[in-house]
Specification:
This protein is mostly helical. It has two domains: about 45 residues; about 90 residues, no CATH class. Helix content is about 70%, strand content about 0%. It has five helices and no strands. The longest helix is centred in the N-terminal third of the chain and has 46 residues. The chain starts with a helix and ends with a helix. The relative contact order is 0.11. About 15% of the residues have low confidence.
Length: about 140
C-alpha cells in the first residue's frame, strides 16, 4: 500500500510538473500570439501607407491626423484602388502616389475627379463622402508644401 501511495504522490507531482510546463507553454504561446497580432495590425496599417517623398508622407500623415479618416478601410474598395486597377495594376501598391509632390497631387486630383463624377452610383455613399473629405484635405496639405 505504501508503495502505491508513493507511486501516486510521485505521479501527482509529475502531473503538477506537466501542468506547470503546460501553463508556461500556454503563456508563452499567448505572448507570441499577442506579439504576432500587434505585428499583423502594424503590417495592416502599413500595407496601404504610401511610400513616397518625405514631404508627401508628412502631408499624408497630417491629413490622417486632421481628418481621422482611413482612406483604405479593410471592408471597402477605395477609389484609389479602382483607379490603380484600371491603370493595369493588380492591386494597390504603396507607390500609388508616385515619388514627388506633383505626382501625388495628380493622383489625388484623379481620385477626386472620380469621386465627383462616378461611373456608377456608389454602393457606399457614406464611405465616398469620407474619401472626398480625406482627399480634399490631403490636396490642401499638398498645395501648402
Amino acid at each position: 500500500m505504501r508503495i502505491d501511495a508513493n507511486y501516486n504522490s510521485t505521479n501527482l507531482m509529475g502531473v503538477n510538473s506537466v501542468r506547470k510546463q503546460d501553463n508556461q507553454c500556454f503563456s508563452e504561446i499567448m505572448r507570441k500570439k499577442a506579439d504576432s497580432t500587434d505585428t499583423y495590425e502594424k503590417q495592416r496599417e502599413d500595407a496601404f501607407k504610401p511610400s513616397c517623398s518625405e514631404e508627401v508622407m508628412q502631408a499624408y500623415d497630417k491629413t490622417l491626423k486632421d481628418t481621422g479618416i482611413d482612406p483604405f478601410p479593410m471592408n471597402r474598395i477605395s477609389t484609389a484602388l479602382v483607379i490603380h486597377v484600371e491603370q493595369g495594376k493588380e492591386q494597390l501598391s504603396s507607390d500609388f502616389l508616385g515619388n514627388t509632390v506633383e505626382s501625388a497631387k495628380a493622383m489625388v486630383k484623379k481620385i477626386l475627379e472620380r469621386i465627383y463624377n462616378p461611373i456608377s452610383p456608389p454602393a457606399h455613399p457614406d464611405f465616398v463622402a469620407k474619401e472626398r473629405e480625406f482627399y480634399e484635405k490631403f490636396l490642401d496639405n499638398l498645395n501648402a508644401i
